[in-house]
Design a protein that fits this description.
This protein has 14 helices and seven strands. It has a seven-stranded mixed beta sheet, with helices on both faces. The longest helix has 20 residues. Helices cover 44% and strands 15% of the residues. The protein has two domains: 75 residues, no CATH class; 262 residues, DD-peptidase/beta-lactamase superfamily (Beta-lactamase, 3-Layer(aba) Sandwich), CATH 3.40.710. Helix 1 runs antiparallel to helix 4 and helix 7 crosses helix 9.
């Protein structure tokens, strides 16, 4: 329960107690007014008082006990999440990195390398989850008519060199597609939505992505790629919960459509999946950023489910001398951690 709901409930309980114990002051008859009433008016007043006395009477002690019980239940619901440190160095095999798992039902964070997990870095292509969310919710992306026309420019990724629709653009992380989506969403709406999501530093000031030292092509840059926008691994998991959690303000259609494109492992509804008995479904998005030709940020963030259970996660890898830093490596670590979490 959100804190605002707690305070509203507390106020309502206090008002209810005042009404039941002492009565509403606006309804209590005043002697000086009643003395001047005619006989008919006095009878009406007496009938009204008689009807009031027929209502069930709750004692002051009963009301206090009920108030205390409700307050204790509400306080328990709004308990602050706990954080536990974990040694997952074996999963990282010498790579500089951090990982966060958040079980919202248990209100429990499990964190590897807490310092780095709280450090904000460029989200890179993990931000496509957000631009997709806003695009779908606002109608900028129409899943039934999502194909965008290729400009004819030859990009380094051959998968981007043709007309492309939403699903393929998301799964191949097509930057030019989401550059167009972002521009159509616009600065004002984008800022409003990032503020609502409390997305890292919410800084979209470098809209064009001019701070990116690795690429000067307008079609392949933006505030989310080694530029002004930054977010920490822990904040990534919090944003995932705000999008897909019980208190999400986003439409069910948008969330279900987003889940479809984020699915990387698990039950897709096929007979083959049933035969294999896949227990854990993993949803997420990779991201990778470079500076002067060197990989400095690699991500995989999303959530995993097994039945009714769900855990939100983020794995981040930073520049590591002598090691192959990639978003693929981040994804492999995240999948292994999610499977291990559900197997415990």
């Amino acid at each position: 329960m959100r804190k605002g709901s707690f305070f509203r409930n507390a106020i309502c309980l206090v008002l209810a107690a005042a009404l039941m114990i002492g009565g509403c002051s606006g309804n209590a008859p005043r002697q000086e007014s009643r003395a001047g009433l005619g006989q008919e008016a006095a009878q009406v007043s007496e009938i009204s008082e008689s009807n009031q006395t027929e209502q069930p009477v709750i004692s002051e002690r009963e009301m206090i006990e009920a108030t205390e019980e409700a307050g204790q239940a509400t306080a328990a619901e709004m308990k602050e999440p706990q954080t536990a440190d974990a040694d997952w160095s074996g999963y990282f095999d010498g790579l500089v990195g951090a990982a966060v798992l958040y079980d919202a039902s248990a209100q429990q964070y499990t964190v590897y390398n807490a310092s780095l997990a709280g450090t904000r870095r460029s989200p890179c292509s993990t931000f496509k989850i957000i631009s997709s969310l806003i695009g779908l919710e606002s109608g900028v992306i129409d899943p039934k008519q999502s194909v965008r026309t290729w400009s004819g420019e030859t990009f380094w990724n051959e998968n981007w060199n043709h007309d492309i629709g939403f699903d393929e653009a998301f799964r191949t992380s097509c930057v030019w597609y989401f550059r167009e989506v972002t521009d159509e969403i616009g600065r004002e709406r984008m800022q409003k939505e990032l503020d609502k999501l409390m997305y890292g530093n919410c800084d979209i000031s470098d809209w064009e992505g001019n701070l990116n030292t690795n690429n000067g092509n307008r079609a392949l840059t933006g505030f989310w790629i080694e530029s002004s926008l930054a977010i920490s691994p822990r904040e990534q998991t919090e944003v995932m919960e705000r999008i897909f959690g019980e208190d999400s303000v986003y439409s069910k259609d948008t969330r279900e459509r987003l889940k479809e494109v984020m699915l990387v492992q698990g039950d897709t509804g096929t007979d083959e999946d049933e035969e294999e008995g896949a227990a854990v479904s993993v949803y997420g998005k990779t991201g990778m950023g470079m500076a002067h030709g060197i990989v400095v940020d690699a991500w995989f963030t999303g959530f995993a489910e097994r039945g009714e259970e769900r855990v939100y996660f983020c794995v981040y890898l930073g520049q590591t001398d002598g090691k192959d830093v990639s978003s693929t490596a981040a994804k492999e670590i995240a999948v292994r951690l999610a499977e291990a979490y559900f197997s415990n």
